[in-house]
UniProtKB/TrEMBL annotation:
Its main location: membrane. InterPro entries: LeuE-type. This is LysE family translocator. Pfam families: LysE.
Amino acid sequence: MPLVSDVVSFVPDLPTYLAFCAAAVALILTPGPDTMYVLARGIQSRDAGVRSAFGVSTGVLFHTTAAALGLAALLRAAPAAYRIVKYAGAVYLVYLGVQAIRNDEFGAAGERGGAAANATGSFRRGVLVNALNPKVALFFLAFLPGFAGSGPDAAVRMLFLGATYAALTAVYLSGVAVASGRVGDALSSATTTSRLSWLGGGAMITLGLALAVD
């Protein structure tokens, strides 16, 4: 019995959990940099898009852990640290966009690079695209405590809620990846995929610049 009560103390009550899930779904469905990145990768290939989706979800777990440990509070309290992370994320997004255009990642050249390598890189990039966005860190710092409550088990409840958010994110973004992969299959001519490299790369560059100036 003590073991059961310990487990229950780590989990929010059912009404609170359902309210959290409803709020999480509404937020996840709001388009943002993560959705745009997965969409671009999904057009490249369905596998790359799905791996990107799981990469983004892993980034969510990173931010959840940071919020639970109080690391996200440091970004809010230290403007210099916040700016460093923000500009690092912006530079990384711009870098990804430039690389997509230079290497024609959405076209024939990208296919010659090898599907396995592209898929592995998509997961890693998905993690970094999410992890290097300080706004996500501050969002979870503000969002999770309201549902996790207070007390000695609050940090564990935050981790549980963050894992739920990551799972919901993975499901939704995987759906985005599969849908965009079908679009990519339909637009598979060499000329079209070359244009998609410019479109996808340009989208990532735009997101990076928007993050830098916001």
